Amino acid sequence: MFRKILIANRGEIACRVIRTAKRLGIATVAVYSDADREALHVKMADEAVHIGPAPSNQSYIVIDKIIDAIRQTGADAVHPGYGFLSENPLFAQALEKEGVAFIGPPVRAIEAMGDKITSKKLAAEAGVSTVPGHMGLIADADEAVKISAFIGYPVMIKASAGGGGKGMRIAWNDEEAREGFQSSKNEAKSSFGDDRIFIEKFVTQPRHIEIQVLGDQHGNVLYLGERECSIQRRNQKVVEEAPSPFLDEATRKAMGEQSVALSKAVGYFSAGTVEFIVDGDRNFYFLEMNTRLQVEHPVTELITGIDLVEEMIRVAAGEKLRIGQDDVKLNGWAIESRLYAEDPFRNFLPSIGRLSRYRPPHEGKLENGTVIRNDTGVFEGGEISMYYDPMIAKLCAWAPDRAGAVDAMSAALDDFEVEGIGHNLPFLSAVMEHPRFRDGRLTTAFIAEEWPEGFEGVAPDADVARKLAAVAAFVNLRSQKRDILISGGMDNHRRAIGRDWVVTFADELFECHVREEGGKVLVSIGEGKALAVQSDWLPGKSHAHFVVDGQTVGVKVDRVNSSWRLRWRGIDVKAHVRTPRVAELARLMPEKLPPDTSKMLLCPMPGVITSIAVKAGDEVQDGQALATVEAMKMENVLRAERRGIVKTVAVEAGASLAVDEMILEFE
Predict the structure, then answer these.
(1) Which one, of 595, 605, 598, 599, lies nearest residue 638 by Cα?
(2) Reduced to 3 states, what is the DSSP secondary structure of residue 506?
(3) Is 519 exposed, middle or buried (0-12, 13-18, 19+ CB in 10 A)?
(4) Could you tell me the residue range of the domain that residue 346 belongs to?
(5) What's the rounded Cα separation, in Å, for the pair 111 and 91?
(6) Catalytic amino acids?
(7) pLDDT for the residue 76
(8) Burial of 228 (0-12, 13-18, 19+ CB in 10 A)
(9) Do the domain assignments include residue 166?
């Protein structure tokens, strides 16, 4: 077994590898850039080596700097995590030359499967069903348009060395093919240092289902079931689960056996993933093979009981697999939600800044038998950087069946507190509660179909609104009682607390009568039945569980000026609790209007302006590209929302902008 492992990565995956290495008694080495000097993975490792400036192309993906760190620390093995150098054959070769073990597959497998073009050719030769497409190199945008038209729209434009949704575009016409080709090349070059592109037919109504494989250096290869990864946005996975709610045992076996056959054909060992597109009739088509650990590997670990990182380490050390195919049993159901620093209310644009509050739910086995796991690389007070992927954490829930896993995930998301940055917790909660998701009716177009105009939060139905109004009345009562206790020590009077209040959410109004009885707060709303509310919430607590009419709800509670902000299951309301007279007067107050920015193009996220496509005096059309912003290794093209004439261009290419800084002004 190895004595010391260097983790050539950062964030949550570095922390994940360190945990298993520590359990095995292996010393660990972290590497870090300027931006990660105080990062969690640096604190967790036994040693840490600084490797350069914040941009990954000056630190984490510079092979010589990783080799130098190995020499400094005497590490005898390297785990690459995912992304960065994990599928770079030159890195694996450099380690081999250095006499250091690579905790991953052999170089020949990385070269064969890591290149999407080569892997599809090999899969076709091996008899694996593949999606129609053009596997050769594409010289320019004109050729991309010709190929796309020949294949037939829609097409998928993909980076040959890509992964994680980067360098991928769907094109429905010639214009989108031309633009998508260039954007994919730019992203691929920035993220992977390889701008080769290929094009394939985009299968409509598809499911994205992948098979986890595990092999050793003695010719043994297993498949460990599948993962459903159909909940995606911009080709980036958001929610994954294992097993798939769609596959039957026969299809699972066929996909698994094909994955094993392909792995053996290239002499594969270590952990890897074979990805497929599956249509509505369970026909499956090979997409690619990822020769590394996947982001979503925890759901496989939860249903199989196999620590994939440990197996990768043991395989790299030359050990045989300790199990056979018949020993692989799928137990229960697991779901993973990727918590991203992306603001769903601003079209999921990246968000950076300091985590002023970061409090994950309780991990481990809960009283109801479900299991919660949270893989993370951040901490309260830490910063989310603009230089790396916006992932904050991977929250996982396990239960004996799918319905139980979804319920457990919903409750865990309720209990997850993140403040200081924009994040997608409300959106993840909305997905969990969506009837189509709960029914398992999934495709990779799920998000686009269910939120075609973007995510604007979840509106509470009448029953939920009543319960949240009761919660607002409860916290207001507790707050007023606290205020009386404080003032009671300073004077001799105690003011009475009224029993009749009006709770308002935007345009909704709830007339409440509140009384305490038997340790409960009873809230009567209108003529309806009184709702009994119990909770351990106290003023100042940002989260608490409330039992409302027998249902337990985990609500985030914040005081915002004279109102209460309540968040639950993707619902975000600002509740005003007033006396009837004050509520009557409040309705007479004029509405404060926001400033008019309709003639401005504002920067939607912190990032770098990589190009400006117009100049002062230009007339632009609806949908025309105006500027491109790069943030967190993703290019974002900003387009005109209507016709107009450019009055002023306020910035130049290369400028670093904050959120809502002006880029252009129109006449």
Answers:
(1) 605
(2) coil
(3) exposed
(4) 332-457
(5) 11
(6) 288
(7) 97
(8) buried
(9) yes
